[in-house]
Write a structure and sequence with these properties.
The protein is an alpha/beta fold and about 250 residues long. It has a single domain, classed as 3-Layer(aba) Sandwich (Rossmann fold). The chain is built from 7 helices and 9 strands, in the order H-H-H-E-E-H-E-H-E-H-E-E-H-E-E-E.
Amino acid sequence: MNSIKALLALALLPVVASCQPAPEPVEVAADERRFADERRQLAASIRDYAEPIREPANPRIISAVGELPRHLFVPTSQQPFAYRDEPLPIGEDQTISQPSLVALMTHLLRPSETDVMLEVGTGSGYQAALLSKLVRHVYTIEIVEPLARQAAQRLADLGYANVTVRHGDGYAGWPQYAPFDGIIVTAGAPHVPKPLLDQLKPGGRMVIPVGPADSIQQLKLIAKDSRGRVREEIIIPVRFVPLTRQ
């Protein structure tokens, strides 16, 4: 009887062992530590992002950049370069903007925790993810269907529950959820789309690159006062992929 009990105990050993969590592969853990270090270094390196407008950086934006896993918003082949302050290709002839420019454009919106923002040009979802850490909700539109689908899945998987992604023509905005406290356009438009202007709340701000496709554009800040009057300000020269329409 004792030998039978011993055999039963031995038979159970593999089952018990299999219930233990598998150790994280050494190379994966090392990569995550490296990415975390690079995120902190990136946040430190862009602390002067607001220098072009002669304003101090917003600590909330710097903190968000330091927390956001940019390497998960770019293709695997681009992950070694994810924490450089430079744009990177994301497929479909689109790019993810350099973090210092993302920070500046976000800063210009003056985000607050109660704001509802619209983004035109979701891309990989990085800009929307950054905004989601600073505002109540982000609605974002992407005209390239594969990118919209991938970004929606990525943002959901990473737990950004206050971001809603839609495939569609961002030129028309998103009237269902307008007016917006802020609108950010991450593609170069030949002019400021009137539907977006109409969907900007009085007291709201829009940041948009304006100029010819495949050339230098001007990053513009559009501010609408409490009476609906609009003021434009040129910030810096930029170069974005063109805003396309259906």
